[in-house]
Design a protein that fits this description.
Blueprint (H helix, E strand, L loop, with lengths): L1 E7 L7 H4 L7 H16 L4 E8 L3 E3 L5 E2 L8 E2 L8 H11 L6 E8 L4 H12 L5 E6 L18 H14 L2 H5 L3 H6 L5 H12 L6 E8 L6 E7 L1
Parallel strand pairs: 1-7, 2-6, 2-7
Antiparallel strand pairs: 1-9, 3-6, 4-5, 8-9
Helix pairs in contact: 4-8
Length: 230
């Protein structure tokens, strides 16, 4: 059963070695992500699954590794083969900063995966062990300001407000209701991963506690950190 979930974004600049002199700009986000990831270990899960968007859907073993070399310094995480996509590499980096880890598994979900496929993956993960925790890596709209990767879009802020509301309230239904076409228009890379969380949470009672720890767009991209507990 699902006992805890956390949501964090996955910009390479979250890692100080990549950000360089700009690292202090994301100190608040790093602190929020550390708190969210740390709450998963506090829940004493048997399995901690990291879920994030990628070009294709794929599963990776608990020792899978990743590198940030395409974005700058060759920061590596994990002892195994370098197979993790960016979202899962950042997820592993966050977890390795929290201390001793439980059994890990890594699940990449295609950015364009249909909602029902995402929800089904979430349900499978939620029932994969007696105590399951999820670290869900996903960004909001990349069209929040004129300096954003996708330039500004009038629907970007309302889209991210919907996401923030769902994450703050632990509302699985609102996550499952995200429209893939709207997410594509808003350059919202986290839609599929968020719907995996929605599917996992739908199979459980509403979370006993939910908290939005961070909601901002420092580079014109919506970043959120949140934690849910059952």
């Amino acid at each position: 059963m699902l006992v805890a979930a956390a949501v964090c974004p996955h910009p390479p600049l979250l890692v100080p070695q990549v950000a360089g002199a700009a690292a202090p700009e994301l100190d608040d986000l790093r602190a929020a992500c550390a708190a969210a990831a740390g709450s998963l270990l506090d829940a004493r899960p048997d399995v901690l699954a990291v879920v994030g968007g990628a070009e294709i859907t794929a599963s990776f073993p608990g020792n899978a590794a990743g590198t940030l070399r395409p974005w700058g310094p060759d920061v590596r995480v994990g002892p195994g083969d370098l197979v993790l996509p960016l979202s899962l590499t950042i997820g592993r980096w966050l977890l390795e900063g929290t201390g001793v880890l439980p059994v890990l598994r890594f699940e990449a979900v295609g950015f364009d995966a249909p909602p029902d496929e995402c929800a089904a993956l979430g349900r499978r993960l939620a029932t994969s062990a007696p105590r399951v925790a999820l670290l869900v890596m996903g960004d909001g709209s990349a069209r929040r300001t004129d300096k954003a990767p996708g330039y500004i879009h009038p629907g970007a802020v309302p889209y991210d407000e919907t996401l923030a509301g769902a994450l703050a309230s632990g509302d699985a239904g609102r996550l499952l209701g995200l429209d893939p076409d709207e997410a594509r228009e808003q350059w919202a890379a986290g839609r599929a991963a968020f719907q995996v969380l929605g599917g996992a949470a739908e199979a459980a009672p509403p979370p006993a506690a939910s908290e939005l720890l961070y909601d901002d767009a420092p580079y014109g991209v919506g970043y959120f950190a949140a934690r849910w507990a059952w």
